[in-house]
Design brief:
The chain has 102 residues and is an alpha+beta fold. The chain contains three helices and four strands; from the N terminus they run βααβββα.
Length: 102
């Protein structure tokens, strides 16, 4: 099992999750977003027990996203685990890089 991690700007979280969901064959919808947006508010990236986990079980892959906000900042730390192919690992890593920029 592979794990990809990094951080993105909080304003990019929804777009990140929507695009990553497409790659696993999951239809990330408004209910998913509402659940994640509410849960991530109470997270803290400096405390391991305050991260939020959300499964994306798609038709192609099954992954778990772990999220935590940077307290006092606009960043969200992200870990993607369960990535089973080199292609999906590369896509997740590319999305992290893209959504950490500007």
């Amino acid at each position: 099992m592979t794990e990809v991690g990094g951080w993105i700007w909080g304003r990019n979280l929804r777009s990140f999750l929507e695009l990553l969901s497409r790659y696993v064959g999951y239809d990330f919808d408004t209910t998913d977003w509402d659940t994640v947006a509410l849960a991530v508010e109470d997270t803290d990236d400096e405390q391991a027990d305050r991260w939020y986990s959300y499964p994306l079980v798609g038709s192609v892959h099954e992954i778990e996203i772990r999220l935590a906000r940077s307290v006092g900042g606009d960043e969200v730390s992200v870990t993607v685990s369960g990535v089973v192919t080199a292609e999906l690992e590369l896509r997740a890593d590319t999305l992290l890089s893209a959504f950490a920029a500007g």
